[in-house]
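Input chain follows. Return structure tokens only.
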Amino acid sequence: MKKFILSILMIAASCGLMAQEENTIKIPSGYQGCLEHGTCFRPWDGGRTVTAFSTTHGFFFNSHAYVGIGIGMEGGKDYFTMPMYTALKYVFVVGKAASPVVQLRVGSYLGEESGAYGDAALGVRFASKRDFAVNVMLTASYLSRIEEETITRVNGNDITRETITRNPSQVGLRIGIEW
């Protein structure tokens, strides 16, 4: 985890060095693709950790507002799911090397189970002189609860049914590149 955070800081610093002159920063417009990687923690589901990858493609309708669609993969030791979503992103300050950014994703997920998916992220966008940026965001994701039914047979005749409810919602850190 320390190496992951150190690599994030190194990428952020290199983007800051690439964009020393504030007035030469590329203002986002038109098509934008994004590839993201994240590590999430599920405190409500036994403290599991999850690794996530996602890609989002869409358009900046002005220099602040972005709308896109995306798909991702999340997995852990005994878990795999694919979120499909619509993404809304807002860049607060344009023309600067670093800017606060907020992102909201809404959709559904498929896997062993399926259900509703939502993700809110708050972070910093490090822009460059070219049409390239790095995003570092703290995230909170909602995945609808999963109910699992277990059946236990006792002496071949008696059947005991137990329903276990899992909450796969998570919090984490995500880093992404835009082109």
